[in-house]
């Protein structure tokens, strides 16, 4: 199988030479047609010149230049080149800084041979590890990244979603529209992983020991972290049509609430009586829409009556939450218009409301 190891580089002059030598050594153990593609973004330390010199000795060493726009942009450029120009059947993602051991390449390749589409060199499966010398900040950063990817973006089944050491069949990559991923930086790792799970790729995690780099610095910046979290929210939003339906139902609830409130006032009811009655009517109408539309396809265990009670409980809880937010904000920012506080209060309440109803009231049970 023609295999291209894609290595993005930005100021990796000390690392790239020894890494290429170590990879060539590993290639001797493999029967596949192995290539290396360095994707360099005009590194000021002239990493590319170094690679050009090495190209004289290695016909399987390729270099692709570009402008620095982020790790994701570099990988996308590299993957398209590997597929369209080099006609690769398999590509690897690999860091230039020896954090990923060249000796592990054959182990990842073996899983591809056994039929996997997407092999992850994983730090978070038994046998895998992160560097002992990592400080609390890097540990938390990496853990937090994986929690966000698994629980927010919804990639529950994968332990190491942010790993940068992977072997991927191009048959699966060709099904992905890179432009639609909409990411530039390190968020690419999670965006790509999510895209291949949607395509039902066979994903395998192989334990690896991640080594701290000896030369140079990490390129991960604040911008990458912000994009990472925003991307995870986006994936959650995109993949949950259910959530969008839930929001639409919520909007009809507001109309029902205000409509009944106006009607009851018109009929001469006291506003302190009309208010809770209208609230309860809108809770019931929301429940009916959610039960017979939003969560229609869910296999739930409770009778409609019980679900109705649970839904009501959750609704009252979110009422307390949004009212609590309103009161708190009003106390701290008395000069801001109350409508602003009221609106901000809706946001956490809606999210909690959705999660509790989705995972409790309308919890899906397998047959
Ligand atoms: N061409 C290019 N352009 N290369 C880049 C860029 C860029 O904008 N940013 C980073 N790189 C290259 C680096 O030169 C290195 O070879 C590789 O990408 C990884 O960058 P590091 O800066 O060493 O990343 P890290 O050690 O902080 O992050 C590692 O862990 C992350 C989280 O698990 C990597 O394995 C990431 O891929 C991984 O997501
Ligand atoms: Mn690194």
Keywords:
single chain; 367 residues; alpha/beta; Spore Coat Polysaccharide Biosynthesis Protein SpsA, Chain A; 56% helix; binds guanosine-5'-diphosphate-alpha-D-mannose; binds manganese (II) ion
The global form is elongated
Our count of domains comes out at 2
The beta-strand count equals: 7
Question: Which structural class do the helices and strands define?
Answer: alpha/beta
Low-pLDDT sequence parts: none
Report strand order across the widest sheet. Answer: 3-2-1-4-6-5-7
Q: What is the CATH first-level class name of the largest domain?
A: Alpha Beta
Which compounds are bound in this model?
A: guanosine-5'-diphosphate-alpha-D-mannose, manganese (II) ion
**What is the name of the CATH superfamily of the largest domain?**
Spore Coat Polysaccharide Biosynthesis Protein SpsA, Chain A
Explain the overall architecture:
The chain is α/β, with parallel strands linked by helices. Helix content is 56%, strand content 11%. The protein has helices at 13-27, 47-55, 71-84, 105-113, 136-152, 170-173, 178-181, 188-198, 222-239, 241-266, 271-294, 304-332, 338-361; strands at residues 2-9, 33-40, 61-65, 90-93, 118-122, 166-169, 203-207. The protein has a seven-stranded mixed β-sheet with strand order 3-2-1-4-6-5-7, sandwiched between helices. The two termini are 42 Å apart. The chain binds guanosine-5'-diphosphate-alpha-D-mannose and manganese (II) ion. The site of manganese (II) ion has 5 residues, from loops. Residues 95, 97, 99, 213, 218 line the site of manganese (II) ion.
